[in-house]
Amino acid sequence: MTRDLYARHRAVLPDWLALYYEDPLEITHGEGRHVWDAAGNKYLDFFGGILTTMTAHALPEVTKAVAEQAGRIVHSSTLYLNRPMVELAERVAQLSGIPDARVFFTTSGTEANDTALLLATAHRRSNAILGMRNSYHGRSFSAVGITGNRGWSPTSLSPLQTLYVHGGVRTRGPYAHLDDRDFIDACVADLLDLLGHTRAPAALIAEPVQGVGGFTSPPDGLYAAFREVLHERGILWISDEVQTGWGRTGEHFWGWQAHGRSGPPDIVTFAKGIGNGMSIGGVVARAEIMNCLDANSISTFGGTQVTMAAGLANLSYLLEHDLQGNARRVGGLLIERLRAVAAQVPHVREVRGRGLMIGVELTRPGTDEAAPEAASTVLEEARAGGLLVGKGGGHSTSVLRIAPPMSLTVAEAEEGAAILERALRSI
After folding, report:
1. DSSP per residue over 350-382, as a string?
2. Distance from C-alpha of 347 to C-alpha of 370, rounded to nearest angstrom
3. Tens digits of per-residue pLDDT, 199-250?
4. If you count DSSP H runs as helices and E runs as strands, how many of each does the chain have, helices first?
5. Which of 16, 107, 259, 401 is the least crowded, having the fewest Cβ atoms under 10 Å away?
6. What span, in angstroms and rounded, lies between the C-alpha atoms of 236 and 239?
7. CA-based Rg of the chain, rounded to a whole angstrom?
């Protein structure tokens, strides 16, 4: 049955639509932190639909909210007042840390970043954007144009002029040998030098932890130091929280808060986990920025009632059950467990991350050369052992991405670590 579905997939969908595994997997249902495939095999899910199943699979509170809302009305568009949309916007605005915040809902993180770019360029009357090397911001034309990761950038054409600065990757590049303070100083000097050679850009867009790039991040405080430079010149700071938001990093509710010394970002984008699988994205910005557009606009599907009901129920569950605290506690244990394993596996260059956002970088032993074939081997072996993980990375995909639902238990973390240990030792 799966082979037949794969053949049908290949016949009608694009060749560039990536699939995991030599024998692709059809997931039919899930519960808690587990999913099942079409053959009845059970897996511990350490990737959560690319960091999207934030609380749990088939969370009763969310499924009930969706069913009840669907029984009333599913959709009406933003041309009409929408109570669930207003209620979720109020909660997101209050949680954002941005003063006088306005919220606009979209259907994805890509669309959220598109909207942020539209707002920033319109507000600043500039089409130049500062991006980070090794970054990823989505699949659309404008989002691809600011993505600093060759593996996810199929064209050099763009409506924007993009200028890339250093800092997103701590352990590679020309500043990797420096200590944290000197690393930040060098990156700020690079930014200042770049700004001296161009007209002032509209904004810097940055992921606090680079997701597709392999869960890399700078030292805490880098973007605060950048913000001081940007603020002097009126340049906006967009924090792409599509993967880091809602407490996944454990230490903070938003990834930008590790860089909050100079105040919050001007714009925050979000998506993925807030819907727990339902299609929700969005933008939060100061009213001055959000209201700068001088033409009419609506969203047909952004903020639709059924997804807003899911978001409200999911966010309430996350806050009431302190899943941020759970991500900090269980994630900390999982990181230490994986570091102990890594010390005995020559292919592991680094285990990094925070909370339940963990990267295991694989290289050829004794070198810094990426080992994508090793990552593929581990992915397959982990599946055979009953564990699903993701992949990512910069120049070549050789980082295992671990991001289970934030309700992960200690026992499940130990189980997943044991399976991953066996998979790593199989390289």
Report:
1. EEEEETTEEEEEEB-TTS--B-HHHHHHHHHHH
2. 10
3. 999 999 999 999 999 999 999 999 999 999 999 999 999 999 999 999 999 9
4. 13, 15
5. 16
6. 10
7. 21
